[in-house]
Automatic annotation (TrEMBL):
Organism: Methylobrevis pamukkalensis
Keyword Cytoplasm: no
Gene3D superfamilies: 3.30.470.10, D-amino Acid Aminotransferase, subunit A, domain 2
Cofactors that this protein relies on: pyridoxal 5'-phosphate
Protein known as: Branched-chain-amino-acid aminotransferase
Amino acid sequence: FDSRDGVIWYDGEFVDWKDAKVHVLTHGLHYGSSVFEGERAYGGEIFKLRAHTDRLIESARILGFKIPYSADVIDAACRETLSRMNLVDAYLRPVAWRGSEMMGVSAQNNTIHLAIAAWEWPSYFKPEERLKGIRLDIAEYHRPDPKTAPSKSKAAGLYMICTISKHAAEAKGYADAMMYDYRGYVAEATGANIFFVRDGEIHTPTPDCFLNGITRQTVIELARRRGLVVNERHILPDELATFSECFICGTAAEVTPVSEIGPYRFQPATITETLMNDYMAEVQPKPAAAAAE
Ligand code: PMP
């Protein structure tokens, strides 16, 4: 991934993709002092860019560091990265981290870096898998107690258990894994939030120890716009047997139907399909006239 053509925005300037490097003694690499975003551009516009930028700044604040650029500068840098890469439909990855001046747990004076890369990332899951629903394993790791980890931060360190869980799932032939939380409630997938349908109503876990995803919030809004009931609540594992539909959602995953979670079976149907289509319509850039209506 590091040997592509193109440019990456790096601390205020564009550098060649191949030269966008960090030192091996970077604090972010040793101690996980790194936060990131995942954004998608559709038709040349980054969907909910300011919400992502605000979350990036907030993620860093939670980890105790301040990104040395304003939200306006970061937004402009994201847009310029997209245009310099000649991309219209793409994925963007801003990442911020503590640098390499000091080594040790404490690194108060290390430079805070920010980089932004963009590339084409058509579908997180294979299209054919997506339509019939993907299969999820049940992860061994649980989402940690907010007292144990900074769960509101999109911090690189929190992805350690996600990568372990997703690799374990893939080794068993699953596309991804569903994680329970520290209390044993249903939480989310390794990089996306989760939704269920029963008797025409939607149920989704309360995001009190994992990200309240920007896609999740969008999907809830779209569902309510359709007059659908959305219940945000704690969901027990036993309930998985009672749901008819299931889908996951996130910036990369968009709305992806789920057909299996371990021993439980789901049938992607009307509500999942409706929200999949509504989401794809919602992310398209709005013509100025329509937006003003
Ligand atoms: N949970 C996790 C663990 C994620 O990595 C993501 C993707 N950022 C989400 C949920 C969904 O967040 P969003 O919709 O803001 O992309």
